[in-house]
Amino acid sequence: MLEALIRDAKTAPKSFGYKLKNNLVTLEDQEEALTSPKWAYQFAKYIPGANIEDCQEAAIKDSVWAYNFARDVTGANIEVCQCGAIKDPRWAYKFAKNVKGADIEVCQEATIKDPRWAYNFARDITGANIVICQEEFHGTEYENLWKLLEKEKSIQKKC
User: Which residues of 94-129 are buried (b: 16+ CB within 10 A; e: fewer)?
Assistant: First the structure.
C-alpha cells in the first residue's frame, strides 16, 4: 500500500504552490502563476525570464502584492503598482515609506482614510502634509500620541 502511494505521488500532477515551495517552477508555469496575486509576485521575483508586465497586472489586484511587487521586482512600473497599493491605507503608507519613486500626495490621500495610518504617515513620511493628517486623526487616540511625540521632539531640540 505504501509503495502505491509513493508511486502515485511521484506521477501525480503537482500544484503551482507545491512547485513553488519545492523550487520546481519553470517559465511554462507562468499562466498558472497569474491566477493569484501572490503567485504572480513570487513568479516575477524569482523566475528569470518571467513576463513582468503580465505578472504585475495580476499582482496589483491585491494591495499587499502591489506594494511588494513595486518594492522587490526589478522592472516594476511604480506608478501602476501604486494604483494597486493605495486601495488600502496600510499599504499606501508602506508604499510611501518604502518604495523609491512613490507619489507622496497620492499615497497620503489614500492613507488618511484611517486615523492610525494618517498618524503614521505624518510621523514617518518626509513631505507629508501634517495638517491634513492631523485633521484625520483629530479626536482619536492618535491625537494624544501626536502631542506626546511633539513634546518629545521639543525636549530633544533643547538638549
Answer: bbbbebeebebebbbebbbebbbbbbbbbeebeebb
3-state secondary structure of 157: helix
**Contact between residue 113 and residue 140 where contact means Cβ atoms under 8 Å apart:** no
* 1, 41, 79 from 50: Cα distances, Å: 41, 10, 20
Global pTM reads 0.84
Domain definitions of the chain by residue range: 21-158
Torsion from C-alpha of 93, 96, 97, 100, nearest 10 degrees? 160
| 48-81 pLDDT, tens digit each | 999 999 999 999 999 999 999 999 999 999 999 9
Closest to 85 in 3D by CA, of 55, 108, 57, 65 = 65
Cα gap 22→17, rounded to integer Å: 9
